[in-house]
Amino acid sequence: MPSAPLKLVTARALRRHLLALAAGALMGLAATQPALAQPAPSTVPPGKEPIRIAMIEGLSGPFANAGEAVFRNLLWAVERVNARGGVKLADGAHALELVRLDSKGNTEEALAMLRAALDRRIHFVAQGNSSATAAAIVDALDKHNQREPQQRALFLNYSAVDTALTNEKCSFWHFRFDAHTDMRLAALTDALRDDASVKKVYLIGQDYSFGQQVLRQARAMLQAKRPDIEFVGDELHPLGRVKDFLPYAAKIRASGAQAVLTGNWGNDLTLLVKAVRDAGAPVKFYTFYGNALGAPAAIGDAGVGTVLAVAEWVPNLGGAASDGFYQSFRQRFPDPREDYVHARMQSMIEMLARALEKAGTADPVAVARALEGARLDSKPFGGFHSGTMRAADHQFQQPLIVSVMEKVGAPGVRFDVEGSGYGFRVVRQLKPVEVEQPTTCQMTRP
């Protein structure tokens, strides 16, 4: 997910706040663990210390639904590893254990939770639902790992997509398993390039670093791929504060655009799409996040055939392996409101498990070196998802899929999203080499 703007605080206030939060964090760890009915069985022999992964996410507050959705993904991935006997290190088999830490969607709280995890000697930290928070964690871990080499930790990033995190802000201690902003744009603009009906494009986004980057890079990529395209709009709007998008919709209609490209998410996406359809503007939407967390149900019929999204995998990919993967998740979490599964989060835990076994130890440096250049083959996913962790910048290179919203039951749409009655049909599959981007990373290795 994109980042929310980072609220600035004084260094003294931040230190006081972090100390206070860290003091109480350990007492609250157990309380953050929800009771899950009928947990998946583990076949790991008892006796060995589990290998803990601290998930730092907003589990309360306005983005709690996103944090809980991530938790279900990571929990299921951990359960699958433990069901086959855990990870085999030099001293025997160890179970993986997921520890929930609530950042409340706040970067200061996330840093306090990081401190609590490090105090527990947890060597693996996972986060993703904010690039601003991810950047703060990278910086904090860089300093911690240099200062306390006996208590180092790795940061596993499943959703923070700011391109800088594997470029000028890259770190040996950070591994990203999601496609970053420019990779996602490469997929979307390839699909848009091949749509001959589109001659005019309207760019619109949220007015902060992520939205600005999406519009800037989208323009550059489309100018290179389709120099004939005319940009008839390029504007930013306040993040999360626009309640009526009809004025924007009127401008989009008046522009004559056939396509809108946006990085908008949450209500800023759903309200925009609905307003444009209400205004009678016959445009397609090329989006980052139009396919999950309530967006399809909120958009409704306005999105059928018009809302496209990009992801590493979709339930309607097709094939027995993909279907089985999705149906297994739905069996584990049958409530339609819990229907949120991403292959990249499963890939992350699977690759960590393999790196642990290759290293033969949970030492973060050894595991990091085992992850560098590691390839995820078809074993855990039956051939429908694979990729490589690029050693130069720790950016996972994987296929991407562009899909379009349709009613369930339409050709190519066997599964809907979150019980909404709407699903996404695959319109374009891109190989890793087609979305791979150069890196400026100058990594310092221990």
UniProtKB/TrEMBL annotation:
Domain (Leucine-binding protein): residue spans on this chain: 50-403
InterPro entries xref list: BCAA_transport, Leu-bd, Peripla_BP_I
CDD domains, sorted: PBP1_SBP-like
Signal peptide location: 1-37
A Pfam short name: Peripla_BP_6
Presence of keyword Signal: yes
Keyword line: Signal
The organism's place on the tree of life at top rank: Bacteria
Coiled-coil intervals: none
Family classification: Belongs to the leucine-binding protein family.
Name of the protein in question: Branched-chain amino acid ABC transporter substrate-binding protein
Species whose genome carries this gene: Aquincola tertiaricarbonis
